[in-house]
Amino acid sequence: MRSRSRRARSIRLVFATAAALLIAGCASMPASLKAYGLNKTLDLSVVARHPTAYVGRLVRWGGIIIAARNLAHETRFQILAYPLDHIGHPESNGTPLGRFLAETPGYLETMIYRHGRAVTVVGRVQGVVHGKIGAASYTYPEIAVRRIYLWPRQRRAQPQLGVGIGIGIGG
């Protein structure tokens, strides 16, 4: 009788531990990217077409850094935007949404925040800046950054479960 209840407790403990590990292993959005009053559906192409209608709106956009430049009092990024996944990471294997400019106060090291790195920003729409990409005219939505998150170079691999039987010989 005792061994049965002990075995049942052991089984419950194993399942509870496994459930806790599965929950802990789920990726979540970095705290710095969470913001209240955020307009999650505001697309940068809409802002580029109607900039004055969206000035001051709080957005979370992300993508791949095309260029980074330190100015007198801020750092300016040109970012190729991509849709964000459930944790706010740019899905750069999809179709780009366009480009935007992001200005963050102060100095950020452009050798760290450099071309090819993935970032997500939270900030307010400032309007647009008219510029060029090569010889073509381009309208860049501009964001005044409140928070910026530089993603690690490699995303963690999704947990994988494997079962195997084999013989190992070591020396």
Concise structural overview:
The chain is α+β, with helices and mostly antiparallel strands. Helix content is 20%, strand content 36%.
Overview of this protein structure:
With 171 residues, this protein is α+β, with helices and mostly antiparallel strands. The protein has a single domain, classed as Beta Barrel (OB fold (Dihydrolipoamide Acetyltransferase, E2P)). The chain is 20% helix and 36% strand. The protein is built from three helices and five strands, in the order H-H-H-E-E-E-E-E. It has helices at 2-25, 44-49, 51-54, and strands at 58-70, 74-82, 98-105, 118-133, 136-150. The chain has a five-stranded mixed beta barrel. The radius of gyration is 23 Å and the shape is elongated. Mean pLDDT is 83; it is low at 17-25.
Mean pLDDT equals 83
Ends distance: 46 Å
Task: Count up the helices.
Answer: 3
Strand order of the largest sheet: 1-2-3-5-4
Largest sheet: 5 strands, mixed, barrel
- CA radius of gyration: 23 Å
Report low-confidence residues grouped into runs of 5 or more. 17-25
How does the overall form come out from the CA principal axes?
Answer: elongated
> At the third CATH level, what is the topology name?
OB fold (Dihydrolipoamide Acetyltransferase, E2P)
Sheet/helix structural class: alpha+beta
Q: How are helices and strands ordered from N to C? A: HHHEEEEE
What is the name of the CATH class? Mainly Beta
Portion in strands: 35-45%
CATH superfamily: Nucleic acid-binding proteins
- Count the beta strands: 5
User: How many domains make up the 3D coordinates?
Assistant: 1
The helix content, as a percent range, equals 10-25%
